[in-house]
Design brief:
The chain has 233 residues and is an alpha/beta fold. The protein is 25% helix and 30% strand. Helix 3 links the parallel strand 3 and strand 4.
């Protein structure tokens, strides 16, 4: 039986006119948190400096991975060929209503319809890797979706402060989450936050050079990963 799309249902309720919609986010490190669904419907003027910088780093054909309802894709498609890749069917429907031109309902792990010059993974999209042990394989998968000379643009955060406070024995940055909305809960899912050194280590193993191009006061950073060209013989 297909899991109920808790996330998508909350998005749809907000879209059809409930501005006070909140998702409850259960986690593996503390008390549940309330997330306003409005954050997924931001306009260009609401973007953070990091997100605006990320948009300027995109080149050529862009795949917006985990696009949600497509706020970033809508901006990008003004100047690029941009595709929104999203797992939630309801989010895809909303994105279409909001004017996203190219939408793929699917998962980056199985999507193989095209190659791109930029893979964009904002809102800690690298979290899809789930665990540190999966990072190298995940980067190798992403490389297959890139044209020669392509790049990955992503952001993540260093959560060492959180683990220091909790004195946790868990692997650094490995979190489990569960969505809840109107009494219905999603399955638990793994989500990874990657500090800069860990990112560089595993990206290098997969043949990428990492450049950290922006950092903010909250230990969040923006990185560009570019495939290292093999040396000529």
């Amino acid at each position: 039986m297909k899991d109920f799309d808790v996330y998508g249902h909350a998005l749809m309720d907000y879209f059809i006119g409930n501005p006070d919609t909140f998702l409850t986010l259960h986690n593996s490190y503390g008390a549940p948190e309330q997330m306003p669904v409005s954050v997924f419907f931001r306009e260009e003027e609401d973007l953070t400096p990091l997100e605006k910088r990320a948009l300027n780093c995109c080149k050529g054909k862009v795949l917006d991975i985990g696009a949600g309802v497509g706020p970033i894709t809508r901006i990008l498609q003004r100047t690029h060929y941009a595709v929104a890749l999203e797992l939630s069917e309801d989010a895809c429907r909303i994105a279409s209503f909001l004017g996203v031109k190219n939408i793929v309902h699917g998962d980056i792990r199985t999507y193989d319809e095209d190659r791109f010059d930029t893979l964009l993974m904002l809102m800690n999209g690298i979290g899809l890797a789930g665990k540190v042990s999966e990072l190298e394989g995940f980067f190798n998968l992403l490389k297959k979706r890139l044209n020669p000379g392509g790049r990955i643009v992503l952001d993540s955060s260093d959560l060492s402060y959180l683990y220091a406070e909790l004195k946790s024995n868990s692997s650094l940055g490995e979190i489990s989450y569960q969505y809840e909305y109107q009494g219905r809960k999603s399955p638990w899912f793994n989500w990874l936050y990657v500090d800069q050194l860990t990112l560089q280590k595993y990206a290098s193993r997969a043949g990428f050079e990492t450049k950290i191009i922006y950092e903010d006061e909250n230990d969040q950073y923006l990185a560009i990963l570019e495939a290292i060209e093999p040396a000529s013989i």
